[in-house]
Amino acid sequence: MSIFQLPSITKKKNRLGRGHGRNGGKSGRGQKGQKSRAGYSAKKGFEGGQTPLYMRFPKGRGVKQITPSQIKKPAVITLGVLRGFEAGSIVGPGQLHKRGYVQKKTDRVKLIGAGALEGAYTVRVHACTPGAKAAVEKSGGKVELIEIKNRD
């Protein structure tokens, strides 16, 4: 230092984070590691490499959806089938199964058709068209609807 230069009162600022030259430093990022690198941003739910909380729990099972193809359609019985039974008899899924009109006793049965019917029948089915019901009642019989119980 020469005689004409006065010593500086202010301290020179360290240029941090500019390489490993003079006063490179760590820029307040600590030592080495993922957080000290440029471009680091903590992702949502990131736990430092540990398996995140949302992955540690089992998946939700949800609700099983039933497609239209999985819904079993009822066995369709016409008024002509009733003519094969004796007049005054009770016709239900069990009797229709014995005669081979229905595959299983537990199958749902729907009565369809319109027109004349001879003889009074008591028909026990799960569903019935208005025309078929009118034809059975006109001949002196009656239609009893079987209630479907839910499996819930």
Q: How do you describe this structure in short?
A:
The protein is an alpha/beta fold and 152 residues long. The protein is built from four helices and six strands, in the order H-E-H-E-H-E-E-E-H-E.
The overall pLDDT average reads: 83
Stretches with pLDDT under 50, minimum 5 residues = none
Span of the ends, CA to CA:
96 Å
Give the CA-based shape.
Answer: rod-shaped
At the first level of CATH, what is the class of one domain? Alpha Beta
Helix content: 10-25%
Keywords: Ribonucleoprotein, Ribosomal protein, RNA-binding, rRNA-binding
GO molecular function, one term: structural constituent of ribosome
GO biological process, one term: translation
Subunit structure: Part of the 50S ribosomal subunit.
Task: List the defining traits of the structure above.
about 150 residues, alpha/beta, Ribosomal Protein L15, Chain: K, domain 2, three-stranded parallel β-sheet, 4 helices, about 15% helix, rod-shaped, rRNA-binding, rRNA binding
Description:
The chain contains four helices and six strands, in the order αβαβαβββαβ. The strands form two sheets. It has a three-stranded parallel beta sheet with strand order 1-3-5. It is rod-shaped, with a radius of gyration of 43 Å. The termini are far apart.
